[in-house]
């Protein structure tokens, strides 16, 4: 199935998407609620959602839906860095034998379509196209052989990074957690709609006609199954947890001869084949603060 969470002239709801049309599944099945949390945790509820989708119901145009975060407050948001060889090389790193892992907080996230905010303290706002998975069945010490059974769905993520602040510490936390720099969505696609492990999908970032990154998820060092197994060695994964799987080469800080930072007034788009486009207009925090003060 393909889902989008958002509003269309009413309360926030979960919609099932078929082409340009969407069925309000929250209206059809009350237990679904207003985001994907309940569906991720309950396979039986997902089966009811499929039935409701087949039955039709309250239908709207997908274009009329203002996206919200697929899961309003994910319990854990883990990001994997340095997962494409050419990206590792452009950053000047050695190829690691264990993935670089870091976490994002809730305030750093925003829905697809919402503004990505360039902070007042830096102009070095960078883009990172990433595949993001949402955990369904939780667990600890999950084997690689069984790991894909724990995926509820896949979506698109832009891991917006403030590079000078990322370099202030070996842990990367500041540069990866500025408010409203991590765009998620808008579509979440269940695994049966994609190749196994979401492998072999074109992944791209762009501003207008300018292609910034273009690669394929087949080029990831650590696959979806690898990543789930590695992370679940040290922590219990729970339904609704998010895992971002790293970015391919072409990021702005590595552009030659000059870095390519995102600028206010631009719209950055991240597209993954079979999933969709996550578009974010870029605004300046100073301008945003001035507007709020008026």
TrEMBL record:
Name of the protein in its database record: Ureidoglycolate lyase
EC class of the enzyme, as a word: lyase
Stated family: Belongs to the FAH family.
EC number(s) reported in the record: 4.3.2.3
An annotated GO BP: carboxylic acid metabolic process
Annotated GO MF terms: isomerase activity; metal ion binding; ureidoglycolate lyase activity
Residue ranges of every copy of the Fumarylacetoacetase-like C-terminal domain listed in the record: 77-282
TM helices/strands, residue ranges: none
Keyword S-adenosyl-L-methionine: no
Alphabetized UniProt keyword annotations: Lyase, Metal-binding
InterPro entries, per database record: FAH, Fumarylacetoacetase-like_C, Fumarylacetoacetase_C_sf
